[in-house]
Design goal:
Blueprint (H helix, E strand, L loop, with lengths): L6 H4 L2 H5 L56 H11 L8 E4 L1 H13 L6 E4 L6 H8 L3 E4 L13 H10 L3 E7 L11 H9 L5 E5 L23 E6 L12 E4 L2 H10 L7 H10 L2 H27 L4 E6 L5 E6 L8 H15 L4 E2 L9 E5 L3 H20 L1
Parallel strand pairs: 2-3, 2-4, 4-5, 5-6
Antiparallel strand pairs: 1-7, 6-7, 8-9, 9-11, 10-11
Helix pairs in contact: 4-5, 10-12, 11-12
The structure holds pyridoxal-5'-phosphate.
Pyridoxal-5'-phosphate (PLP) binds next to α4 and β6.
Length: about 400
């Protein structure tokens, strides 16, 4: 059944009342811009030494970086909509400085400090909890399953908790998961959307482009459930982590509130241009080629090599992301966080290979998260790992 929650009634009243910042350029198209206290000369390093200085030409400064960017990133949105290809409009998209900004923004739109709550399902991405801690929001946790359906939702418990606590304003579900690398069952996600829960269902699809057939984006459900919000990012499959561009994709009601609290110019001219170029039809084809190389490297080189190593207990999560979650063990098969930490440290100090230690997270005992890089990087990593094991097994 379609869902049409009164979004304003679950948002923070002060946010609903807010009049967003509006620039003169949203009301008039100008030729001489004296409204924003910018420099008419252009970036100082490109301005001539003559006296008086001559403004940098359009040729030298094609992106007009002396001017504030489009506050609503319209050109980027148009291209994202074409990629999503499910009938959404620019009113469904919020462009942020990375997915991280969208997560923080959403938390501040819906959660009253000291009153409201969010629900997360560990092991998961840390920024949901960070945003809550910064904003004094209580975090409820229902761990992912570890036995029957590894790294899937404890769906009955999740739904029951959401339906019984009206103070839970956001539930964060990550698919594919980080650090799990596992896609959540779409049937479970739809069950959450179909439940009587009246808050925001935040589904984080940061790694969605790495997923093979059968686990497609939930974007097609955005027009059906007005409390569904997706996070996507240019940082992973598109290789633009340094540009900082992310997206929230949701109903126009939610997007309007997110726009109303954002800093007016949250995505730079340079970042918008990088995202716009990367979302062209040709660049998307190129992104898909790279994703396919990463997935092949993961499945045909990295995972098989690791599975042969005696000090690798199991590859816990792999198959849907540009990283894998690997559990390490002593020669007798015992999983030990201490051993894993030593592997992690030896790789970092002796081989300059950096991984992420996730051993402290629920269901991730003894595990490291390992990114999938180029084939050469994987061979270098595997060789260094063998050496680390040799050294530790002699101790
Ligand atoms: C699950 C998940 N969501 C969101 C993000 C945020 O990415 P960014 O802020 O670079 O867009 C990350 C980054 O690692 C992630 O793993």
């Amino acid at each position: 059944m379609p869902k049409n929650i009164d979004i304003n009634s679950i948002a923070r009243p002060n946010v609903v009342k807010l009049m967003p910042y509006r620039s003169t350029r949203e009301d008039y198209s100008g030729e001489v811009f004296l409204d924003s206290n910018e420099s008419s000369f252009g970036p100082a390093n490109l301005v001539s030494n003559s006296s008086p200085p001559i403004p940098a030409s359009q040729e030298l400064n094609p992106l007009q970086t002396n001017r504030y960017p489009d506050p609503y990133c319209s050109k980027v949105k148009e291209r994202l909509i074409a990629k999503l290809d499910c009938g959404l409009s620019t009113d469904n998209i919020f462009v942020s400085s990375g997915g991280d900004e969208a997560i923080d923004n959403l938390t501040r739109v819906f959660c009253r400090p000291g009153v409201d709550k969010c629900l997360i399902c560990p092991p998961t991405f840390e920024m949901y909890e960070m945003a809550c801690m910064i904003n004094e929001i209580e975090v409820l946790k229902i761990d992912l399953e570890t036995s029957n359906r590894p790294f899937q939702l404890q769906i009955d418990k999740v739904i029951q908790t959401l339906e019984n606590d009206p103070l839970i304003k956001i539930v964060w579900l990550t698919t594919p998961g980080n650090p799990t690398g596992v896609s959540l069952n779409q049937k479970d996600l739809l069950a959450v959307l179909e439940s009587d829960y009246k808050g925001i269902v935040g589904i984080d699809e940061a790694y969605i482009d790495f997923v093979g057939d059968g686990h497609q984006s939930m974007a097609k459900y955005v027009s059906k459930y007005n409390n569904l919000l997706l996070i996507q990012t240019m940082s992973k499959s598109f290789g633009l982590a340094g540009a900082r561009v992310g997206f929230a994709i949701s109903s126009p009601e939610v997007i309007k509130l997110m726009n109303s609290i954002k800093p007016p110019f949250n995505v730079s001219v340079l970042a918008q241009n990088a995202a716009f170029e990367a979302l062209s039809p040709d660049s998307i084809k190129s992104m898909r080629r790279i994703v396919s190389e990463i997935n092949q490297t993961r499945d045909e080189i990295l995972v098989p090599a690791l599975e042969k190593m005696p000090n690798v207990k199991a590859v816990l999560g792999s198959g849907d992301t540009n990283f894998i979650l690997v559990q390490f063990c002593l020669s007798d098969g015992t999983v030990s966080n201490d051993f894993t930490k030593k592997v992690y440290e030896i790789l970092a100090t002796e081989s300059k290979i950096l991984l992420r230690n996730r051993a402290h997270m629920p269901g991730c005992n003894g595990s490291l998260r390992i990114g999938v890089g180029t084939r050469d990087e994987m061979y270098r990593f595997l060789e260094a790992l063998e050496k680390a094991f040799e050294k530790l097994n002699k101790e």
